[in-house]
Input
Amino acid sequence: MVASTPLKIPKKLTQVTLRVHPEGAVVGAFFLSHRRKRATGAEEPLDVLNQASPFVVVQRQEPDELRFYNKASIVRVEYAAEPLPELDNLTPLYCRLHMMDGSLIDGCIRRLLPPDHARLSDYLNLHEERFIKLHTTDGQLWLVNKSYIVYVTPLDEQMRPNLDDGDDA
Output
């Protein structure tokens, strides 16, 4: 008789709040790998949400259960930002998201893009990414499902909230 042990990939739980349509707020945790598949560093919630798989695994505490959420029904995911080293070549893209439910979300996108494709429209049109990463004034990161955005407007300097104190990613 051969002893069998299940193969397990070490993962860490990262606390998130999902805004799910039509359920509302869901508090849980994502299972994240200690290494990214295509880049350096640990996996982030954005990496999991932008994978091709249609469902994401969420560990709930109340009730204590494992759920598989359809990414298409997730409006956004919120979590605390972890400070990262300053990157000089990042261009902050300040914008306002006009959402399907009528809400407005102000924030800043910080992403390393090629100099000739570093406009807000270039980032929004990355077709392989379903969610965008938005830094908010309260130090949170919001991962917003592009499918729930009606339109986006750039914020001029007078309209920009205090978004320069966040992390860069």
In short: The first strand starts at residue 11 and ends at 20.
